[in-house]
Design a protein that fits this description.
The chain is of the alpha/beta class and 348 residues long. The chain has a domain at 126-249: 3-Layer(aba) Sandwich (Rossmann fold), CATH 3.40.50. Helix content is 44%, strand content 13%. The strands form 2 sheets. Strands 2-1-3-4 form a 4-stranded parallel β-sheet, sandwiched between helices. It has a 4-stranded parallel β-sheet with strand order 6-5-7-8, sandwiched between helices. Helix 5 packs across helix 7, helix 5 packs antiparallel against helix 10 and helix 8 (200-208) runs parallel beside helix 9. 41% of the residues are buried.
C-alpha cells in the first residue's frame, strides 16, 4: 500500500470527513455564479470518485457573498463533519490565502472543537500554465495570429490582481515570462488591477510606445467580475487612443479541466501531507523580505469581518471603503506613493 493509499484508508476509517473550497467572494453576481459552477464540478469529482475519502463537500466566501466561510463550516458540521480539509480557491498565495483565511479557520476550529487542515492555493502549477496558454492561444487564433512570425509582432500584457505581497506579485511576473518564452511573443509586460504597480492604464500607455503591431492583454483571473470588466474597459480606451495598434482581449481562466484538476491535487496534498512546494522562503510573514521586514511574525488575523456575507447588491459602497482602508487595516505598503499608482482600478 502506498503512503497516499494508507492516508486515504485512515481518513475513511475516521469518518465524517469534508472538503471545503474557500472563495474570496465578489460584488459581481456573475462571478459568484461562476465560482458556484467550479464548486459543482469539484463536488462531482470529489464525491463521485470510488477512491474518495470525503463524505461531504462545501464552499463559502471570505467577503461580499454568501454563504460565508463560517456559514459553510456550520453546515458541514451540522451534517456530522468533525474533520475538514480546506483549500483556498485562489490563484496565488497573498494575504487572503496566507493570513485571512487560515486565521478564520483557526478561530473556528478552536471555538467548535473540529479539526481543520489547510492546503495551498493553485500557484504556478504546470496545469495552470496550460490553462493560461490555452486562453492566450484561443485569442490569437480568433485574430488570425497563429504563426510564430505573427507572435513576434505581439506584446503580451499579463494583468494580475495585485497584492501588497511581492511574493504573489512576483508569481504573476513569472507566469508572464513563461508564457512569453513558451509562446514566442515579441515582448512581455506585467501589470496589476490594483494595490501594487504598474496599474493597467499606465502599462498600456508604455506598451503602446514599444512599436509592436498587436497587444495581447490577458487578465490572469479565475472569474470575470468587476475588475476584469474594468481591465477590458481600459483596453477599449487604449484602442481608441492608439488606433494604429490592435488590442486583443484574452479570456479569463474559468472552470477549465486543468483548473479543476489542480484544485483536486491541492486536496490530495492535504491527504498525503505533501506541502513541500509552498514558497515559505519568500513569505513576508515568515522571513525578513527586503522592504517588508516589519511584517515578519505579524499576528495572523482576518481583516474582512465588515464585509462578510453582505451580498453582491449591497456591497458596492462597502467594497470601495474596503479598498480605501486596505493600507490601514494591514501593515503599511512601502510603495503606497508610487507614481504608477497602487490604488484599485476604478471606473472612469
Amino acid at each position: 500500500m502506498t503512503s497516499r493509499e494508507a492516508g486515504m484508508e485512515g481518513a475513511r476509517a475516521s469518518g465524517h470527513r469534508a472538503l471545503l473550497l474557500c472563495g474570496h467572494g465578489s460584488r459581481d453576481a456573475g462571478a459568484v455564479a461562476e465560482f458556484g459552477v467550479l464548486a459543482s464540478r469539484l463536488r462531482e469529482r470529489v464525491l463521485g470518485s470510488a477512491s474518495c475519502s470525503y463524505d461531504q463537500f462545501g464552499y463559502g466566501f471570505l467577503e461580499f457573498a454568501r454563504p460565508t466561510l463560517g456559514e459553510a463550516l456550520d453546515l458541514l458540521r451540522s451534517k456530522g463533519a468533525s474533520r475538514i480539509d480546506a483549500v483556498p480557491g485562489m490563484l496565488l498565495a497573498a494575504g487572503h490565502a496566507k493570513n485571512d483565511i487560515p486565521a478564520l479557520l483557526r478561530d473556528y476550529a478552536k471555538k467548535h472543537g473540529v479539526v481543520i487542515r489547510y492546503g495551498r492555493p493553485l500557484g504556478l502549477d504546470a496545469r495552470m500554465l496550460s490553462a493560461a496558454a490555452r486562453r492566450v492561444r484561443a485569442a490569437l487564433e480568433r485574430a488570425g495570429l497563429e504563426s510564430q512570425k505573427d507572435r513576434h509582432g505581439c506584446v503580451l500584457l499579463v494583468v494580475g490582481r495585485g497584492a501588497s505581497d511581492p511574493d504573489a506579485n512576483g508569481d504573476v511576473a513569472k507566469l508572464m515570462r513563461v508564457l512569453w518564452e513558451s509562446l514566442g511573443f515579441g515582448w512581455g509586460v506585467v501589470a496589476y488591477s490594483g494595490v501594487t504597480f504598474p496599474l493597467v492604464a499606465p502599462a498600456l500607455d508604455r506598451v503602446a510606445k514599444l512599436g509592436f503591431a498587436h497587444v495581447v492583454v490577458f487578465p490572469y483571473f479565475l472569474f470575470r467580475g468587476i475588475l476584469v470588466d474594468r481591465i477590458y474597459g481600459a483596453v477599449d480606451v487604449a484602442a481608441r487612443r492608439y488606433r494604429d495598434i490592435s488590442f486583443l482581449k484574452v479570456g479569463y481562466l474559468d472552470s477549465q479541466e486543468d483548473v479543476v484538476a489542480t484544485f483536486l491535487s491541492r486536496a490530495e496534498e492535504i491527504e498525503t501531507g505533501d506541502g513541500s512546494m509552498m514558497n515559505c522562503g519568500l513569505c513576508k510573514y515568515r522571513e525578513k523580505v527586503v522592504g517588508f521586514e516589519a511584517e515578519q511574525g505579524a499576528a495572523q488575523e482576518s481583516h474582512h469581518h465588515h464585509v462578510e456575507g453582505i451580498g453582491t447588491e449591497e456591497a458596492h459602497d462597502h467594497a470601495h471603503d474596503h479598498a480605501r482602508a486596505h493600507f490601514h487595516t494591514h501593515a503599511p505598503y512601502p510603495h503606497g506613493d508610487h507614481p504608477l499608482g497602487v490604488r484599485t482600478l476604478e471606473e472612469g
